[in-house]
């Protein structure tokens, strides 16, 4: 499906990203969701060995990802996970690590993490297969994949277009597709309304269970006026020298990629000029423009949501 996570390309490597003390653990909530899924679908949770040594083209029974036909499960009735302090998994937390030529650094804690960007989700193709911390992915649990949050950890994900939010337990690495900051489980995607579109503009806020008393948020009453419409940009560069920013802006304008702007920013006490394309109509347009930028050999664009 649109924006499906590419963590599966590197599951073997992710499984070897060990070094942190602790062991994977499941909450009673998670086990309950698995049991409920078995009952409703009347099929066993996949018990055959997940052979991570097999190539991705043959590891999964499905060739393409998809969503379930419903099966009688009421997503609205599934309780959100309650954040709790857990030991880090033995797997999936090595830092730094490299995927598809990109280097990523795992944060020591989810506390203080706050990022806006594009969310995607993954479904039936991966249901029952191992995540990067060697838990089985359950598309009916409120979980997620992140490139940088520690495994396991908790975050609140808010759909910026309708105000709906969900607490997720992060137990997987990804998404490694361009322009994505988080891959949600099918249930989480339904809860905040990015299904069946496939992607959505979100804010991801890390949760520190030791310091925060977090309760699931009630469904908000959202109107067109109260929700507003987030604006989507692609940031191609940030410069301390205004002349360098202007040169890149002129280069982008010559390529007819869309509206170009140079905006002031201050990072760590330093004045910067950010060169951005947009606002863009939607995620599809952002992906198309990103491909054009990459083909031109320009700096890889980063999503900026305002």
Unreliable segments of 5+ consecutive residues:
2-47, 220-226
Reading off the top of the CATH hierarchy, the class of the largest domain is best stated as Mainly Beta
Q: Indicate the mean pLDDT.
A: 81
- What proportion of the residues form beta strands (DSSP E)? 25-35%
| Radius of gyration, whole Å | 20 Å
Q: How far apart are the termini?
A: 26 Å
Written overview of the protein:
With about 300 residues, the protein is an alpha+beta fold. It folds into two domains: about 5-205, Barwin-like endoglucanases; about 230-305, Alpha-Beta Plaits. About 20% of the residues lie in helices and about 25% in strands. The chain contains seven helices and twelve strands. The strands form three sheets. Strands 3-7-4-6-5-8 form a six-stranded mixed beta barrel. The radius of gyration is 20 Å and the shape is globular. It starts with 10 loop residues before the first helix and ends with a strand. Residues about 1-45 and about 220-225 have low confidence and may be disordered.
Supply database-style keywords.
single chain; 306 residues; alpha+beta; Alpha-Beta Plaits; 2 domains; 4-stranded antiparallel beta sheet; 20% helix; globular
Summarize it.
The chain is 20% helix and 25% strand. It is α+β, with helices and mostly antiparallel strands and 306 residues long.
Secondary structure layout plus pairing:
Blueprint: H1 11-15, H2 28-41, H3 56-59, E1 97-99, E2 102-104, E3 114-122, E4 143-145, E5 153-159, E6 165-172, E7 180-185, H4 186-192, E8 200-207, H5 224-227, E9 232-239, H6 242-254, E10 260-267, E11 270-280, H7 283-295, E12 302-305
Parallel strand pairs: 3-7, 4-6
Antiparallel strand pairs: 1-2, 3-8, 4-7, 5-6, 5-8, 9-11, 9-12, 10-11
């Amino acid at each position: 499906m649109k924006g499906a996570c590419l963590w599966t390309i590197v599951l073997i490597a992710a499984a070897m990203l060990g070094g942190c003390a602790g062991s994977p653990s499941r909450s009673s909530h998670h086990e309950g969701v698995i049991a409920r899924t078995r009952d409703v679908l009347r099929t066993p949770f996949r018990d055959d060995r997940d052979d991570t040594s097999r190539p991705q083209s043959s590891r999964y029974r499905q060739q393409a990802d998809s969503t379930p036909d419903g099966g009688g499960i009421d997503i609205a009735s599934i309780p959100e996970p309650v954040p709790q302090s857990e030991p880090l998994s033995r797997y999936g937390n090595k830092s730094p690590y490299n995927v598809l030529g990109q280097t990523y650094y795992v944060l020591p804690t989810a506390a203080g993490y706050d990022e806006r960007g594009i969310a995607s989700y993954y479904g039936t193709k991966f249901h029952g297969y191992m995540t990067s911390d060697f838990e089985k992915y359950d598309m009916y649990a409120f979980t997620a994949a992140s490139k940088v949050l520690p495994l396991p950890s908790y975050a609140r994900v808010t759909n910026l277009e309708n105000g709906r939010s969900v607490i997720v337990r992060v137990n997987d690495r990804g998404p490694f597709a361009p322009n994505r900051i988080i891959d949600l489980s099918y249930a989480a995607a339904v809860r905040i309304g990015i299904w069946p579109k496939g992607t959505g503009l979100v804010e991801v806020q890390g949760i520190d269970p030791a310091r925060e008393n977090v309760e699931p948020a009630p469904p908000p009453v959202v109107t067109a006026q109260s929700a507003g419409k987030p604006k989507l940009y692609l940031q191609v560069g940030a410069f301390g020298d205004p002349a360098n920013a202007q040169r890149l802006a002129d280069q982008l304008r010559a390529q007819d990629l869309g509206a170009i702007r140079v905006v002031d920013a201050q990072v760590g006490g330093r004045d910067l000029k950010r060169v951005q394309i947009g606002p863009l109509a939607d995620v599809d347009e952002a992906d198309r423009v990103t491909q054009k930028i990459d083909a031109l050999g320009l700096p890889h664009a980063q999503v900026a949501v305002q």
